TrEMBL record:
Pathway: Purine metabolism; IMP biosynthesis via de novo pathway; N(2)-formyl-N(1)-(5-phospho-D-ribosyl)glycinamide from N(1)-(5-phospho-D-ribosyl)glycinamide (formate route): step 1/1. The gene is purT. Its EC number is 6.3.1.21. This is Formate-dependent phosphoribosylglycinamide formyltransferase. One of its GO terms (molecular function) is magnesium ion binding. NCBIfam families: PRK09288.1, purT. It comes from Sulfurimonas lithotrophica. It catalyses: N(1)-(5-phospho-beta-D-ribosyl)glycinamide + formate + ATP = N(2)-formyl-N(1)-(5-phospho-beta-D-ribosyl)glycinamide + ADP + phosphate + H(+). InterPro entries: ATP-grasp, ATP-grasp_carboxylate-amine, ATP_grasp_subdomain_1, PreATP-grasp_dom_sf, PurT, PurT/PurK_preATP-grasp, PurT_C, Rudment_hybrid_motif. It is an enzyme of class 6 (ligase).
Length: 387
């Protein structure tokens, strides 16, 4: 493999569509291999903008605007980093010969819950909880009654819990209907899911480099309001549950195809494993790999994209805790207690230019035996605050 320098006529270029905290780590890893990096997002000074060679601010849902940047920059690899972006632009770019990671069809399927759920459950036959799709409030009530309360309601296009709610009875339906409008993406259709009473849930990071598929240790996580708050690795699983999880991850990622890392989200009850959803890119709960693995999920993503070998060492157990702002601010300051800077813990501050309530601004990482690491991350996260 040959590695050119950036900003030359023969440079290899990587374009990130979405430039948040996950993209920032991908850009850093890309630069470590001499790649030229271009970061695109809908607002100025997004985390990856701050480290990339060039950056663009554009309406990510505008086909022409995205295509214009792609045609101008001619990247060797286009890495979608957020769900809410113009899929038409990606389909067209692929048609023109650009390499969309993992491929435009996989991005199309995974960005929309209806597409990915029907693909997983109906085409591939993977086990999921019962679900229905609705477009009206009356339809929502009907579906919830048929599935049985409680139900989880989510816009077909959204992420990080935006627009998501749990309805426990009929009286919650009007609120859930209103809440869905908070979607980051498309709320014209909703998925209504029976509540899966799982023992625990995991993300199984799965990397494909065109030659082999490699799994990371399973990542356990805790979610609040549809968004991750703590994650730890490895999640203790029975051998049978782990085998089932890897089988599902292999089937869904083979089904989607292409190269890169995927975050396969699964619910586990006993030895039974239910498919939930999958990100065709690094996963927020996978930030824990920044402290547990010789090659983080971001480094593995790049290796997979470039077709490089996927070998890495699992250094040992760890945990991560997301810090979310409690204020709205145009000049956010994250105050971190010195006790976070120890031999086995540290913090990464994302440098987001604006804070609002609930926005993730930093992550605390702890390296320790998994229970202690999680316990410690619960203590440490209380020592991070908005200044
Ligand atoms: N059917 C369900 N039964 C029980 N819990 C659920 C169900 N669907 C979702 N959840 C809970 O809500 C969380 C978020 O749901 P989901 O992953 O579908 O949304 P998301 O907005 O895509 O989140 P992210 O972007 O952070 O992955 C899940 O990790 C799980 O904890
Ligand atoms: N669950 C998806 C996820 O974690 N995505 C990550 O959050 C950023 C958006 O953050 P913002 O909402 O603070 O701009 C995205 O750009 C990505 O890095
Ligand atoms: Mg999810």
């Amino acid at each position: 493999m040959k590695f050119a320098a950036p900003l030359k006529s023969n440079s290899k270029k990587v374009m990130l569509l979405g430039s948040g905290e996950l993209g920032r780590e991908v850009v850093i890893e890309a630069q470590r291999l001499g790649l030229e990096t271009i970061a695109v997002d809908k607002y100025e000074n997004a985390p990856a903008h701050q480290v990339a060679h060039r950056s663009y601010v554009v309406n990510m849902q505008n086909k022409d605007a995205i295509l214009e940047i792609i045609r101008r920059e001619k990247p060797d690899f286009i890495l979608p980093e957020v769900e809410a972006l113009s899929i038409e632009a990606l389909l067209e770019a692929e048609k023109e010969g650009f390499n969309v990671i993992p491929n435009a069809d996989a991005v199309n399927k995974t960005m929309n819950r209806k597409n990915i759920r029907t693909f997983a459950a109906e085409d591939l036959g993977l086990k999921t909880g019962p679900y229905k799709f609705v477009t009206t409030q009356e339809g929502l009530l009907e579906a919830a009654k048929e599935l049985g309360f409680p139900v989880v309601i989510k816009p077909v296009m959204s992420s990080s819990g935006h627009g998501q709610s749990v309805a426990r009875s009929e009286s919650d339906i009007p609120h859930s209907w209103e809440e869905a409008k908070e979607a980051r993406g498309d709320a014209s259709e909703l998925i209504v899911e029976a509540f899966v009473d799982f023992d625990y849930e995991i993300t199984l990071l799965t990397a494909r480099n065109g030659k082999e598929t490699v799994f990371c240790e399973p990542i356990g996580h805790e979610q609040r309001d549809g968004d991750y708050v703590f994650s730890w690795q490895p999640m203790q699983m029975t051998p049978k549950a782990l085998q089932n999880a890897q089988d599902i991850a292999k089937r869904i990622t083979d089904g989607l195809g292409g190269q890169g890392i995927f975050g396969v989200e699964l619910f586990v009850k006993g030895d039974e494993v239910y498919f939930s959803e999958v990100s065709p890119r690094p996963h927020d709960t996978g930030m824990v790999t920044l402290i547990t693995q010789s090659q983080s999920e971001f480094a593995l993503h790049l290796r997979a994209v470039l077709g490089l070998p996927l070998g890495f060492t699992f250094y040992g157990d760890g945990a991560s805790a997301a810090f979310k702002s409690e204020v709205d601010s145009y000049a956010p300051v994250v105050e971190v207690d010195e006790s976070l800077f120890t031999d086995n813990s540290y913090v990464r501050v994302f440098g987001k230019p604006e804070a609002h309530k609930g926005r993730r601004l930093a992550v605390a990482l702890v390296f320790d035996k998994v229970e202690r690491a999680l316990e410690k991350s619960r203590e440490l996260i209380k020592k991070i605050r908005d200044a």
